[in-house]
Design brief:
about 120 residues, mainly beta, seven-stranded mixed sheet, four-stranded antiparallel sheet, 11 strands, about 0% helix
């Protein structure tokens, strides 16, 4: 099993930056992809960014050019650097990972962007 713990959320003004971290433990050797999802107030959970083995990444259109997903294999950690934040980025952000055991999710971290 893979366990995930997110950190780095908080309150930031519009235009500001935050970096989210997601530390993985457990069966990390079998992880093939990791990503960040978010769920805003009254909205469905949506994919924000994904990184797969080999380093390929993909992003939700509305965050392209502002968010960057990266992975530090030595630290078993995936990051989401968020720049030029907007009020509509306000959400609970969740980390997830795909391994041989299926999908694992973190507990979520709140990001609030004030306008």
């Amino acid at each position: 099993q893979v366990q995930l713990v997110e950190s780095g959320g908080g309150l930031v003004q519009a235009g500001g930056s935050l970096r989210l971290s997601c530390a993985a433990s457990g069966s990390i050797f079998s992880i093939s992809a990791m990503g960040w999802y978010r769920q805003g107030p009254g909205k469905q959970r949506e994919s924000v960014a994904v990184i797969i083995d080999g380093g390929s990444t993909s992003y939700k259109d509305s965050v392209k050019g502002r968010f960057t997903i990266s992975r530090d294999n030595a630290k078993n950690t995936v990051y989401l650097q968020m720049n030029s934040l907007k009020a509509e980025d306000t959400a609970v952000y969740y980390c997830n990972a795909l391994s041989r055991d299926g999908w694992a999710w973190g507990q979520g971290t709140q990001v609030t962007v004030s306008s």
